[in-house]
Amino acid sequence: MKARLHYLYQKFLVNRAVVLMYHRIATPESDIWDIAVSPSNFEQQLTFLKRHFNVIPLSELAEVVARKKIKRKTVSITFDDGYVDNYVTAKPLLEKYGLPATFFIASGNIGQETPFWWDELEQLILFAEMLPQVFSLPFYENGGKTDLKEESFLSPELRLKHTTWKACEVEPPTLRAHLYYSLWQQLKPLPYQEQQARMKLIREWAGHVVTHPELKSMSVDQLKNLGSNLLEIGTHTVTHPALAFHDVAFQKQEIFENRKCLQEITGQEANLIAYPYGNYNEDTLNSVASLNFKAAFTTEERPINKQAHQYRLGRYQVKNLPFHESSSIFNQW
């Protein structure tokens, strides 16, 4: 991580700012979307940031962007979704080093026992010890089916392939992985109710219930206690939809109700927003403008300069990399 941050400094941080994006601080068995950073690596990253960068609250960065007075070596830290490890693990470490951060919370999952649909789908398809050999449900690829063959049983070799697979970088390596990725693509653009209806059918087909407490979101009390002078709360919609697939009324309601809920729980304004999946369109930009958000953040990897669009501000996803990794890996940022 040290080499990666040095690269950011050399290439970007001259009158530019960088926003870092985290999701989970944990060491899960699998991390197919590359969104988890181990607690030890996270602490090393915080140590380096504190020593070499000017880490400021995201709300302050939004004001700096509006005034077009960005200073060099400026960094802000963000978290998406609201996983419980943000409260249990990330919060104490941020407080230990006195570093501010903003947590973008999908409020619909707060206080729920069930994980986000993509986490449940991953556990059901990739890690169930035994599955029916044939997957065939009415909504699946125009009524088609997938024969898992010998992969209906989760062998140690199959488990290893799944635990090391990175879906953003590598094609699905197994029949189960192909099935997972196909279902993920189908479910992502759907509204929440339809996602849940299809997940119910998948759950019944698999014959399993996912019980992984570490995949839960924060409780209401944890969210209430998260916000402080150091830690801010941001808007991330109610049900985490891919906004661009929905009409403007749907988008505006998801954003408005999320902010309202977060403000009622935490007492904070929640006037910054991050788009779920980084997905947005012109209707999204118009919606956040009409709701008077101070700034909006994407997942597009680019620094923030004086010319940056107020509602299309870039962020860099932080990977689970220790200090000793070669700088060539970090140059992909």
UniProtKB/TrEMBL annotation:
The keyword Kinase does not apply. Residues 73-333 form the NodB homology domain. Coiled coil: none annotated. InterPro entries: Glyco_hydro/deAcase_b/a-brl, NODB_dom, Polysacch_Deacetylase. Pfam families: Polysacc_deac_1 (PF01522). PROSITE patterns: NODB. One of its GO terms (biological process) is carbohydrate metabolic process. It comes from the Bacteria. GO terms for cellular component: extracellular region. The keyword Signal applies. It is found in: Secreted. One of its GO terms (molecular function) is hydrolase activity, acting on carbon-nitrogen (but not peptide) bonds. Keywords: Signal. PANTHER family: POLY-BETA-1,6-N-ACETYL-D-GLUCOSAMINE N-DEACETYLASE, PTHR34216. This is NodB homology domain-containing protein. It comes from Rufibacter tibetensis. The lineage of its organism: Bacteria, Pseudomonadati, Bacteroidota, Cytophagia, Cytophagales.
